[in-house]
TrEMBL record:
<feature type="region of interest" description="Disordered">
    <location>
        <begin position="63"/>
        <end position="84"/>
    </location>
</feature>
<comment type="similarity">
    <text>Belongs to the ST7 family.</text>
</comment>
<dbReference type="Pfam" id="PF04184">
    <property type="entry name" value="ST7"/>
</dbReference>
<dbReference type="GO" id="GO:0016020">
    <property type="term" value="C:membrane"/>
</dbReference>
<keyword id="KW-0812">Transmembrane</keyword>
<protein>
    <submittedName>
        <fullName>Suppression of tumorigenicity 7</fullName>
    </submittedName>
</protein>
<feature type="compositionally biased region" description="Low complexity">
    <location>
        <begin position="63"/>
        <end position="77"/>
    </location>
</feature>
<dbReference type="InterPro" id="IPR007311">
    <property type="entry name" value="ST7"/>
</dbReference>
<keyword id="KW-0472">Membrane</keyword>
<keyword id="KW-1133">Transmembrane helix</keyword>
Length: 521
């Protein structure tokens, strides 16, 4: 109706000239029509889209214009669930042994490599994997159920010994191998004893698993115990130099229990195959697990980049590549590195030894600093073994951030970088002696900074001239006199350089001419 009234007013105006009110109303009407058209086509307000996408990043804000941030309660619930899943903490597949490795570090340095939050998560994992509701039926399991909840390490070890007095308890052997054994050899012996006890319990519960929910839960617990023991035995073999034996144990374990992907045994297998330099087998594992439907990890992304870089890194030269351009193989390697760096941008600094490594935590946050430390701790040697791989990484990894749209958190090949990563990493990593790596920020070009400073300075001068014209006039005259004096001084020194010291005695008359006083002393 408002638009119709404006049109009627336009038609009735004499000489087809619009009054001022008509012009304002017509412009307002046009803006409303454009806003309505933009909203119908794109589903969002044009003004809101411009302010969120362009103005808020410049002011340092966070882009919250995702579809999940709707005004409905269901939208808020979905957004919160997405944030929780993005910041999910995962068990480190290559976590070290507490007694044989973490405690030895503490004895030597006096530092605690694990945080309370990390150890608390491990205690929750142990209670989830190694306990069930039927533990009260077996005295040894009942003791171990309380032992996993103890905070004092000595109390846990004492409870494990108490459980072994009653019967052969697989979880008791696991606890002693993890926390009491001071060497990998001792841990392997205890795990072998745990394997014997665990296989007996597994076969017993397998026969009665369909007799009820209680028996099914007990069989699921015994399965978790058996898989955990076999995986740790394979890791012991890998640490003791029996890599081929470790690879065989991991392959057999993955074939026997293909559905238990929560342990991420394929990442242990990838590291062992890289140690054997069996790159064809590594590619076969990647072809199976580097799938769009499966969760990614730094191990998968950076191992794929390493294999692509291995094909071209020995002959790669930045100067030659800048002259002739990149060929197909080099382009594939660079794209793989960019993909890996976008997934976890903290890894390159550890691989290039630009930042010092610490012992990896027992839990990692994907795409975070904790995952970068865990990956580089075990895979740095594999990158060094491939000639030129680190050089190619050094020349190309920073180019990733030029491909990601601003702000960087929006992402390019993966989902947006989680905002909560830094907070979770500070809980997982010992910040007392380690500086947590944060997501890099895109730096503005120098030309933009210089232009902004010049405009600000010009605006300030204009404001001061408008407010204090007389004072600024005096200031301008003083500046012009100073500049002229400097100019005369430069001209005089240039003239003196053209004459010898004897000829300079005949030039004192230049001083009054140039308006300055010359001193030849």
């Amino acid at each position: 109706m408002q638009c119709c009234s404006v049109y009627l007013c336009v038609c009735l105006c004499e000489n087809k000239s619009l009054c001022e009110m008509c012009i304002l109303e017509l412009r307002s009407c046009e803006e409303q029509i454009f806003e309505w058209w933009y909203f119908r086509k794109y589903g969002t307000s044009f003004i809101e889209q411009v302010s969120v996408s362009h103005l808020r990043p410049l002011l340092g804000g966070v882009d919250n214009s995702s579809p999940s941030n709707s005004s409905t309660s269901n939208g808020d619930t979905d957004s919160s669930r997405q944030n929780v899943s993005e910041c999910k903490v995962w068990r480190n597949p290559l976590n070290l042994f507490r007694g044989a490795e973490y405690n030895r570090y503490t004895w030597v340095t006096g530092r605690e490599p694990l945080t309370y939050y990390d150890m608390n998560l491990s205690a929750q994992d142990h209670q989830t994997f190694f306990t069930c509701d039927s533990d009260h039926l077996r005295p040894a399991d009942a003791i171990m159920q309380k032992a996993w909840r103890e905070r004092n390490p000595q109390a846990r070890i004492s409870a494990a010994h108490e459980a072994l007095v009653l019967e052969d308890c697989a979880t008791a052997y696991i606890l002693l191998a993890e926390e009491e054994a001071t060497t990998i050899v001792e841990a392997e012996k205890l795990f072998k004893q745990a394997l014997k006890a665990g296989e007996v319990c597994y076969r017993r519960s397998q026969q009665v698993q369909h007799h009820g929910a209680q028996h099914e839960a007990q069989h699921r617990r015994d399965t978790n115990v058996l898989v955990y023991i076999k995986r740790r035995l394979a890791m012991c073999s890998r640490k003791l130099g029996r890599t081929r034996e470790a690879v065989k144990m991991m392959r057999d374990l993955m074939k026997e229990f293909p559905l238990l992907s929560m342990f991420n045994i394929h990442e242990n297998l990838l590291e062992s195959l890289l140690e054997l330099q069996a790159y064809a087998d590594v590619q076969a594992v990647l072809a199976k697990y580097d799938d769009i439907s499966l969760p990614k990890s730094a191990t998968i992304c950076y191992t794929a980049a390493l294999l692509k870089a291995r094909a071209v890194s020995d002959k790669f030269s930045p100067e030659a590549a800048s002259r002739r351009g990149l060929n197909t193989a080099e382009m594939n390697a660079v794209e793989a590195i960019h993909r890996a760096v976008e997934f976890n941008p903290h890894v390159p600094k550890y691989l290039l030894e630009m930042k010092s490594l610490i012992l990896p935590p027992e839990h990692v946050l994907k795409r975070g600093d904790s995952e970068a430390i865990a990956y580089a701790f075990f895979h740095l040697q594999h990158w060094k073994r491939v000639e030129g791989a680190l050089n190619l990484l050094h020349c190309t990894w920073e180019g990733t951030f030029r491909m990601i749209p601003y702000p960087l958190e929006k992402g390019h090949l993966f989902y947006p970088y989680p905002i909560c990563t830094e907070t979770a990493d500070r809980e997982l990593l010992p910040t007392v002696f380690h500086e947590v790596s944060v997501y890099p920020k895109k730096e503005l070009p120098f030309f933009i900074l210089f232009t902004a400073g010049l405009c600000s300075f010009t605006a300030m001068l204009a404001l001061l001239t408008h407010q204090f014209p007389e004072l600024m006039g005096v200031f301008a005259k003083a500046v012009s006199i100073l500049l002229s004096a400097c100019n005369c001084s430069i001209r005089t020194r240039a003239i003196l350089k053209l004459h010898t010291p004897a000829e300079q005695q005949n030039i004192p008359s230049l001083g009054p001419i140039l308006g300055i006083t010359m001193n030849f002393a």
